[in-house]
Structure formats: C-alpha cells, structure tokens
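Translate sequence into structure tokens.
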Amino acid sequence: MGAKSILKVLACLFPILLLAACAHRGLAPAGAGLTAPPTAGVAKAQEVQTASTAQPKTTGSEQGKDNLDFLEEEAEEPVVVAVADPLAPFNRAMFVFNDRFYFWALKPAAQGYKAVVPVEFRAAIQNFFHNLSTPVRAVSCLLQGRGKDAGVEIGRFLINSTVGVLGFGDPAQDVWHLTPREEDLGQALASYGLGHGFYIVWPIFGPSSFRDTFGLIGGWFLQPITYVKPPEASLELNGFSLVNETSFRIGDYESIKNAAIDPYVSFRNAYIQNRQKKVNE
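Result follows.
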C-alpha cells in the first residue's frame, strides 16, 4: 500500500469517526469530567466485575479504538526500550487533541450511555464486537506460525457465533475455557524482527508507532465492520463500539494523567513497554 493510500484511509477515518463518536447517545455539556479517550483505561469499574461472565476478559486490538489498553497491564519488571520520537511536536499536539476529545465528547457520551444502558447489555455488546474482530487475531497468530492459537480463535468464533448467539455471549471461555489470543498485526510484524521505527500519536486512535500503524491499517482491512454498507453505517458502528468500550473505563484516564509529571511522556513509555511485553510473550 502506497503512502498516499495510507494517508487517504487515515484522513477518511478521522473526521467521520470523530462525528460518529460524538453523535451517539447525546453528549453532556462540554467539560463534564475526563476519562479515557480513544486510549482508555486501567482497572475496570466495579460494575464490570459483576458482569465478568458476560464479557471478554480482554478486548484485544479492535481497529485501534481503545488504545489505552496498554495501561491495564504492568510488566513485572519494566522493559527499557528506546524508541525515537522525532515527531514530538506533532505527537504532543495530537495528545492534547485526544485529551480534549475525551473530556469534551467521548466521556460525556459514555456517561450518558452508561446511565441508561444496563451493564449486562453493554457487556454483551462488547462481546459482539470482540467476536467480530476474530479475523485480526486469527491471521496475526497464523503469521507468527502459531497455528494452535489461530485454531483456538476460529473455534471461539464458531462457538460464540452459534451457542453464544451471534457473539453476544462468550460460552467459548465461560464453558469451554477457550481464552482469546490477544494478538494483532503489529505483534506479527515484530515477530519478523521489525522494530517500532518511531513513536506516533494518531487522533482518536491514540499512541502507536510506525510499525504498529501498518498493523492498525492491516487490521482495519481484516475487520468485517469495514465492509458494512453504506460506509457511514460502518463508521457509526465503530463509534458505537468506542463509546460502549469507554463506558467501562470512565475515570481511569484521569487518575493516570493526574498522577504523571508529564502525561505525554508517561503514556508514551507505558505504551512502548506494554507493546514490548506483548511481543516477548
């Protein structure tokens, strides 16, 4: 894929996804608190624990939506990885954009949505979107030569799409104890020795790197939602998934940001360390 095609894809996704996320479920007044932007989260809220049997234990890398999942896991021993940041001015500007997007649009939308939708229903929706992202995880496993793990993902998809009623339930894990393999194309590229290249922060999608951006684009093409017609419906589904996911993580982003001396550096280091840990697993 050429550079012009990549930029075209990103340019199309960004403004429409922004509008889609803002449009869902009615936004509260701007400035009504802050929580995890399109990079959301650490510990799940108490209500998620009450619905743990109804939702996947992790959500994977779905279209790069909830790209702060890297904050949910801390390496037992921090991995020191040096990654170039030549785009720091741009990255800091995008960090500020994502921060404001979270506070002004995503968090209010998620708060309103959470107030009217029961946790069980939101967990079922989370399962549904996680099930749809099976091709990303299965292909990523195959590219790494992990045929058994790819088989687990395919088996989970078949079980959850049938017994789990189109993926709204997760009997594959709850009954058959088939744990999802949270792999993505960025990890697959890393398995071939490709390094991060340099750090970059994308609007809406959050922290990434040159390598992981290609993984993100590849994952976008593997997502069934990408091919929903008309294109506006596909983008609305992505926005809905983002709001639903964020509803489980309200408050996490603020606590991490407020504890950091330089939030930009803290989020960058956490992202790089977590990605390195996943590659090494």
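Note: The radius of gyration is 18 Å.
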